Known about the structure:
CATH architecture of the largest domain: Roll
Structural class: alpha+beta
Shape: globular
Number of helices: 3
Radius of gyration: 20 Å
CATH topology of the largest domain: Nuclear Transport Factor 2, Chain: A
Helix content: 10-25%
Largest sheet: 6 strands, antiparallel
Order of helices and strands: EHEEEEHEHEEEEEEEEE
Amino acid sequence: MFSQSPAKPHPKPIRTPRHSERRGRGNRLVSAVPRIALLLAALLGTAQSMALEYQCSVPHDTRYIRVDIPGEDSLCDVSVTYSGTGEKRVMWFAQNSSGFCLEKAEQLRNKYTSEWDFDCRDWPDNDGVAELDDVQRRSFDQSLRRLLDNEDQRPSAVRAIASPSGNKLAVQYFFDESPSSSGKSDRTELLRIDDDGAWRRTRTIDDLASHVVSDPPVDSALIDSLGDDDTLGVLTVVTPDNVGSNMICRGKQMLQADGNSGELVVRTPHRYSCVATFQ
Length: 279
C-alpha cells in the first residue's frame, strides 16, 4: 500500500559514446507561459506545449515529465516539474540525439508507474519528433544542431512532419525573437532524405503565415501535413472583423512548392470556422 510520495528521483543515465548525453543541471522555477504555448493553444485548441509530456499523479502530488526540443542549452532536455512548488529539475540533456531524450523520458515514466505507483497520462506529442523514425530523426537532429550553433537564430520550439514515403521532412522552427537575417518569428525548412541517409534542404520558408492567401489575413500558421509532392498542409488562426473577442477562428490551406521556381503556390482555398472560447 502506498503511504507517501517518493523522494525526487535521481535516475542514472545510460552512457553511450554517440549520444553526448549529460546528467541534469539542477533546479529552477518554471517561468511564465512562453509565446509558443499561446500559439499552440490557438492553433490546436489545446493548452499543452509542443513537447512530449507525461502527467504523473498520486493523491496530493502531480509531476510532469517533459522532453523539450531544443533544451535550455542543448539539443534536448528531459525534466521533471513538481506542480506543488513549480520547481523544474532537468534530469538529462543531450547535444546530438533527440532520441536519447525521448528514450529517457519513457524510461522515467515507466519507473514512476511500476516502482512508485504513480498514474501517468500521456499528453499529445505536438512537436512530432517522437513520430519520426531513426533516419528521419537523425536528419532532424543535424538540421536543428546547425541552427543551435548559430546564437542569432536559436529556436525556442520546433514542429516536424514526415511525408508518407518517409523521405521528406518539413520542420518548422519558432523563435522568441526574430532571427536577424529574416526578421520573422518562424522558419520552415523542407528536407529531402536520400536512401543512404544523407539529407539536404530543398526549401526555406520564412513567416509561414504570410504565404497563406486569405481574407481576413492570417495571424499565425503551423505545419500540419507534408505530401510526397511537397504539398504542405497549414493550420491557421485568423481574426475577422465581424467576430467578438470571445471567438477564435481556425482554418486550413494546402500550399505546394513549385518545382521550378520553388515559390509556394495555393492548392486549396483558405477555409476557416469560428467557435466560442470559454475563459
